[in-house]
Design a protein that fits this description.
With about 140 residues, the protein is an all-alpha fold. The chain is built from 5 helices and no strands.
């Protein structure tokens, strides 16, 4: 995955995982909202959707390794169990998201997919921003 490769290269050059995670979350939310706009405007075609989908998938390569690293860093003694739990939750979330998209699909547009992508991207960004804010005010 190109995003994961770039993530590794940037980490070795001294760019923090928190900065890469923040950048990836902002870019993912932006591309997902752009997908909603394209889907809702009626100009959704392969040529208009694919660049945004590729950009969103690229962001996953920046987000996933940094998020998992930050989540497992405080618990090195149970990293295996924690990583397995993260994998389980990732698969469960994927299955539930697929079911939600199937339920919302109208049979004609990509609006259900892009809307759910935007919903989760914005929720992820908001959760991360809230956690960063709470960390910054701890005494």
């Amino acid at each position: 995955m190109v995003g994961s490769f770039l993530n590794g290269q940037l980490n070795t050059r001294g760019i923090s995982s928190a900065r890469l995670l923040s950048f990836g979350l902002v870019l993912a939310a932006t591309s997902a909202v752009a997908l909603v706009i394209v889907s809702g405007s009626g100009v959704a075609q392969v040529m208009t959707l694919m660049p945004l989908l590729i950009l969103n998938t690229f962001c996953y390569g920046l987000i996933a390794p940094n998020a998992i690293h930050n989540a497992l860093e405080p618990v090195p003694e149970i990293a295996g169990v924690a990583a397995a739990s993260v994998g389980f939750l990732r698969m469960l979330a994927g299955a539930m998201t697929s079911a939600l998209i199937g339920f919302l699909f109208d049979g004609h547009t990509a609006f259900a997919m892009s809307g759910v992508m935007a919903l989760f991207a914005i929720a992820s960004l908001a959760t991360y921003a809230r956690l960063r804010f709470l960390d910054s005010i701890k005494l």
